[in-house]
Amino acid sequence: MAQDNKKQVEEITDMEVDFAKWFTDVCKKAELIDYSSIKGMFIYRPYGYAIWENIQHTLDAEFKKYGHENVYLPMLIPESLLQKEKDHVEGFAPECAWVTMGGSEELEERYCIRPTSETLFCEHFKNVIHSYRDLPKLYNQWCSVLRWEKTSRPFLRHREFLWQEGHTMHANSEEAREETQRMLNVYADFMENVLAMPVVKGRKTDKEKFNGAEETYTVECMMHDKKALQGGTSHYFGDGFAKAFNITFAGKDNQPHFPHQTSWGVSTRLIGGIIMTHGDNNGLVLPPRIAPTQVIVIPVAQHKEGVIEANQAIVDRLTAAGLRVKMDASEQSPGWKFAEYEMKGVPLRLELGPKDIEKNQCVLVRRDSGEKVFVSLDNIEQTVADMLDSIHDSLYAKAKKNLDDNTFAAYSLEEAKAIQEEKGGLIKTMWCGNLECELKMKEEAGMSSRCIPFAQENLGETCPICGKPAKHMVYWGVAY
Amino acid sequence: MAQDNKKQVEEITDMEVDFAKWFTDVCKKAELIDYSSIKGMFIYRPYGYAIWENIQHTLDAEFKKYGHENVYLPMLIPESLLQKEKDHVEGFAPECAWVTMGGSEELEERYCIRPTSETLFCEHFKNVIHSYRDLPKLYNQWCSVLRWEKTSRPFLRHREFLWQEGHTMHANSEEAREETQRMLNVYADFMENVLAMPVVKGRKTDKEKFNGAEETYTVECMMHDKKALQGGTSHYFGDGFAKAFNITFAGKDNQPHFPHQTSWGVSTRLIGGIIMTHGDNNGLVLPPRIAPTQVIVIPVAQHKEGVIEANQAIVDRLTAAGLRVKMDASEQSPGWKFAEYEMKGVPLRLELGPKDIEKNQCVLVRRDSGEKVFVSLDNIEQTVADMLDSIHDSLYAKAKKNLDDNTFAAYSLEEAKAIQEEKGGLIKTMWCGNLECELKMKEEAGMSSRCIPFAQENLGETCPICGKPAKHMVYWGVAY
Known about the structure:
2 copies of one chain form a homodimer.
Chain A: H1 3-10, H2 19-29, E1 33-35, E2 42-44, H3 46-65, E3 69-70, E4 76-78, H4 79-82, H5 86-92, E5 97-102, E6 105-113, H6 118-128, E7 137-146, E8 160-170, H7 173-193, E9 200-203, E10 215-222, E11 228-238, H8 240-244, E12 249-250, E13 256-257, E14 260-267, H9 269-278, E15 295-299, H10 307-320, E16 325-327, H11 334-343, E17 348-352, H12 354-359, E18 361-366, E19 372-376, H13 380-405, E20 407-409, H14 413-422, E21 426-431, H15 435-445, E22 448-453, E23 472-477
């Protein structure tokens, strides 16, 4: 490692020393985020926003494939509208930022900046749903939402964050339930195949479900520090909001019916997940399929004749092959450049100097493993594409091993507590389904229920907390 | 025209009867927009939002071509931050919506929802600009902004609207001025080549320029009712904000310097412009290069064997050729379908029935002219692409004729007033450059200055309002 490199990397706290500090160091040094003068409101810098743009681009195409259409609804919700669904307002009102003045005038009714948009969508659905022919309505919105939280951390907990929120209405419960599962699977596939983040799919307990939902489904993943992160959620509402907002449609039977509703969302929190799943003590490590720059090309001895041209030719070839490639021919030293793109987590570095040109070869250095290989320039497009796939697979395998190695079964509350204290991770136990036991696990072992996984195992017949008959196997953990 | 068609079209007020009503009818009936429960805050419905997505897609690629990067800054501005630049706050404070409560607590300082983000960008620029190596900073943001206006109209005046705001910082005045012009030209080219809207490029008078800017440039266009619409603006700030925010960088001379700044923006107002430039009494007419659906394929006698398959084959061929195509094989009558896509302004309708299939032909009907032609299915991709180009050219030529035919020279205030009352349109006169004469034109003839066009003409030596020596030729008009 060159001297410059060491110097820059030394500015990042080792994750083993202070994981939280390592995380914020990476966010700052990789230029993903900056602080603003309002606590908890962050600035998405170009490199951080470019990751979000790639997430948007990929997911938006998936949503549209299933017939979803994008819309944009107002950012303000009249207080009376927010109050229409009782559970919903109880959950969100404490976190609302309220607009009380318009220009120099006090408003007659105060408006909250949307913390989520179910109520606004219901108001609109009432206007546009009249007949079964108007169903399903499959809407999605890309926007920012605001939740006035007390504590904040880059990407993980912002007062204002970017997200997408899908809102759909269906003629019956079955179709709505299918949609809830379909979109959960879209999230799971995206996280695994694009972000290289293995997930556990499951249902939230009643305590952990979304305010106003009948059921909430989740994809949970595990970070380097063995804490859990909720990657995305998908909610089934039944016809609760439809009744509260009096939304009906004339069915084929010519009778009025209440439609059934879903909503589902992921946010820029996923970027926090990427950092804590793949990053290392040298900085960010980006999964190739989401990286704004997949290959950084660094000319060696760039002042010698023909070097820049040969590097540019490689850039052109790789770009033509559909890869995201940049060349850094700046006056910075090679050591500085190596450190810079290592910090920024660019999956692959390509070096090409006069000797390589003579030999019709170049050097490829993998960000994930540091492995360095000389490869022929013949068919370099395929070589690079294959190596990017291999990096994706390695990142996924490493994260999967972290998840598997740190998922433990426990057969008593004490054991669950001891494992959490000693090792951390996800701890699976049977559960009777009662809130009291869930609260006891939180109080005594510091863990919340992460989900009732779809992949159930039978670890016994009784709840290890109360001894009553068990209903489900649950994953418990300390979560972001 | 089929019976169903007539019925639906009759729901649109003729523009000659009531232009404002025609406009809102089209916005509603073409399903571009819906009203929310807050006055002036509108819902962008899927079809309206899809037009905006196409605008975003095209402009974003242009911005990136010139090296701009997207970022996202907070939606809230602390009052003290907004106040840092005097002219700026004076212009915007009266239109701010103020957040005064976070959760259940009164805030120590109130925050306004961004009406525009110069102050936020300056706060961030101060953190990230240190050396000449950090310049230029070429940032853009896609977001919504909020201005608490008293009156509202779909697309033209929303309390909350979608836009992009570019914010750039440069090492010196020349580079910043170049950027201001470059982005004005990006807007002008986009409007002419993509939206088929001819523009007049020019500079705003001091009275009409952006609050806090040294110079504002504009692209103005003319609507069907001969009113002017400002399509986009580009501002040169000099180092005024940099000084107010104390942003400096170390130059190559190692001395501190103030950077020079620009900002530029277009909004969903452009959609209002599209409607009022191209629409007709049958509804929306979309320029082909921005239309969400460029070709609607309508199977004739669709229950006969092979008809749907043959239509699907055409859809596949046109889609493979990069065109945006949809087929409507629903149970609605052909008349209903014709009216529906006419209302929605789809540029081209393709009809294909059993007889056509036999003859290896189809019917193409242009939305702009109603012209109906039979064409061979051989090379249908090229035929359709050429016709879409021809529609673009026709729309542009028609709009250009409207602009040219309704631009008049006047040589006295009385004459300007008389022309405005009798004919409307843009009226060009010489001008001394003084605010008093500008105010007098507004008071007596009801016209604001639209711009000092780059294409100057010499209509005389004196200002027709005060008789003093003339400095510029100005365009005056009644504007949206």
